[in-house]
Amino acid sequence: MKCNYFGICGSCKIYPDYEEQLQRKKEQFIELFGKEPRVFASPSEHFRARAEFRIVDGSYAMHKIDGNGLVKIDSCPIVLEPIYTLMPKIVEFIKQSPLLIQRLYRIDFLSGLSGEMLITLVYHKKIDEEWEEEARKIAQVFGINIVGRSRGIKSVIGNEFITEELEIEGKKYLYHHYEGSFTQPNPYVNQKMIAWVMQMAGENRRDLLELYCGAGNFTIPLSYCFRKVLATEVSKTSIKAAKENCILNSVENIEFVRLSSEEVAQAVKGVREFRRLAHLDLASYDFQTVFVDPPRCGLDSATRELVREFEQILYISCNPQTLHRDLQELQKSHEVEQIALFDQFPYTSHMECGVKLVKR
Fold it and tell me: CA geometry: angle at 173 spanning 233 and 157, to 5°?
């Protein structure tokens, strides 16, 4: 990938040839885990579905790699093609309107493989009905959704989400990705991660417990591998989107519950009852497999103890260090059967990892 801002813009931290940096990550992975992973590469450009840009004097800007101020940019080749194409057109259009450009602090882009687009305009001023009239022109000209934000105000023109379309093992899945909510940033690698997890799960007639389910990114496809799924998440917005995604995909064997991983451990072990679970018969679930995709901090001690009770553990991690820590405990009862490296974040040192563990 060629970029005029390599070494200046802080978005990309490493920038040799893509194959070379991927090989470096593989070597670092082997050094940490002592095992050679199956490696899933990313496209070398136009792979990122979410991007945030500061606006300075009517131009896009990013933090410099040395942390010393901002650098103005006119393009960003790591973003998806729809974002890359729209970026110059949007900023030029906005610059023609004093009302839209005045005190505009940031533009956020959200897109996907479906090609749908949502942009968020963040202001350091109050936005009002007059602003909305101007913003509607952008939505109409470019056929996109717009969210305007200023302190205490949120204005939605069109939808506050895009409908993403992923294809896994020849089947298409639809997802509502909401503005401001977490979504996987690299849809190409995301498809590979979901396919890998489904392969690791296999087909069986027993049930799945999923922790940190988000908006159902993995849950929806995994539901076809199990009799029933109980999926938990703490975010109200994510649970709302997950239930919508079930309807979009005509899936009926998933129960989504808003519980933390610690609360799930208490409920499954019968330590505490929760009204949010009153409509469920936990005893009717025949759990064999647990799937976790925790935040960067990894699993807490209670959750590690909980997952060790399952015959099969599927673990996706965005932090190799906390995964390595967790594996020290999990391998006391389980054996690593498969391990994978997903290059979700090219041109950075970040690695996404996948592990399948089975009970000894």
Answer: 75
User: Are residues 288 and 197 part of one domain?
Assistant: yes
Is there a domain that residue 120 lies in? Answer: yes
Count of structural domains, the chain: 2
Per the annotation, binding residues are: 184, 212, 233, 293
Same domain, 126 and 250: no
Domain boundary (162, 195, 216) is at: 162
Domain, as residue range, for 212: 186-359
CATH code for the domain in which residue 146 is found: 2.40.50.1070
Identify the DSSP state of 137.
H
Same domain, 202 and 322: yes
Rounded-to-integer distance, Cα 182 and Cα 165, Å: 16
Tens-digit pLDDT profile for residues 313-356: 999 999 999 999 999 999 999 999 999 999 999 999 999 999 99
Provide the pLDDT confidence category of residue 296 given band limits of 50, 70 and 90. very high
Confidence bin at 310 (pLDDT 50/70/90): very high
Do 227 and 352 reside in the same domain of the chain?
yes
Residue with tokens 């029933």: 228
For residues 249-253, give the mean pLDDT: 97
Q: What are the catalytic residues?
A: 318
**Residue 194, SS3 per DSSP:** helix
Give the span between the Cα atoms of 172 and 3, in whole angstroms. Answer: 33
* Binding-site residue positions for S-adenosyl-L-methionine: 184, 212, 233, 293
User: Residue 19 corresponds to which amino acid?
Assistant: E
* Burial class of residue 164 in the structure, from the number of CB atoms within 10 Å of its CB (0-12 exposed, 13-18 middle, 19+ buried): buried
